[in-house]
Design goal:
single chain, alpha/beta, 6-stranded mixed beta sheet, 4-stranded antiparallel beta sheet, binds adenosine-5'-diphosphate, binds magnesium ion, nucleotide-binding, transport, cell membrane, AAA+_ATPase, ATP binding
Amino acid sequence: MMTENTTSAPAATGPGAAIGPERPRGAEVVLDGVSHRYPLHHELDQGWVPWAIRRVSPAARARHEAEAAKGSSLHVLDDVALTIPSGQFVAVVGQSGCGKSTILRLLAGLEAPTRGSVVVDGERVTRPAPERAMAFQEATLLPWRTVRDNVALGPQARGRLAIDQRRIDAALEIVGLRDFAGAYPSTLSGGMAQRAALARALVNRPRLFLLDEPFGKLDALTRLGLQDEFSRLWASQAFTAILVTHDVDEALRLAERVVVLSERPAHVVADLEVPRLLAAAPASADYQDLKARILSLLGR
Ligand SMILES: Nc1ncnc2c1ncn2[C@@H]1O[C@H](COP(=O)(O)OP(=O)(O)O)[C@@H](O)[C@H]1O
Ligand SMILES: [Mg+2]
């Protein structure tokens, strides 16, 4: 488990220190005028038989015209601007399908924005990099590899497997999976699988942690436990964290700042600071007020 050494901020000793002897700084993130469109592929039947059918069937003709009238791209993000200082924990909330995951994909370097710039630590993001880690709703572990070998994927891909053994052990220790290093993913609970996925990211010493609803599918108790552990991890490892979620309580519980997105095409409609004491007092009027405000911005 992530325990005592991770509660006080800089981990000078213990497993946290093994991950980063010199404490890495969290990444600085700047999204400037970011718009994004996904190309759409039309299902237009161009052959002479469909053409002949359209001649005789008004319904087929109407369907064809509606399809042809659709834009050739899906406008997902519209002029998103966001500056995130080193080490901040930001939650991004928005309705399903508004473009939250797209923002993370742009930051991960899996997608290039149609317009605007995505800059991490002063450099434009053009491709994925291990210091920008991503965690998904599914743990996405390779089923034929043990937990340890899944965690070792990054170092192995970079030819550092022999050098990074201690770091792999430390990552397993931090997430409380030391005793399950030899287990296969199919034998793990959902929470344990997510821990393994976190360890796989941690071993690369991420400076930016991109979280795409990673706690969303867990049962309530496991979710609370893992949220707490991730919160301690953030405090000890000093990375910048961007958590995408549709769960406002999760956002308020974990983040220092909540960015609310509009419907698609998404832009930032509110950028709210979460006072430190608020997260610990979900029953307080202040917490409930802030939560109600965010929910109303989300149209709920
Ligand atoms: N590769 C893609 N090609 C076309 N459309 C996509 C692609 N990825 C996502 N979309 C669409 O873009 C919209 C935003 O997707 P996403 O960023 O995943 O939303 P969210 O994470 O907020 O639910 C959705 O309507 C989705 O169907
Ligand atoms: Mg999503």
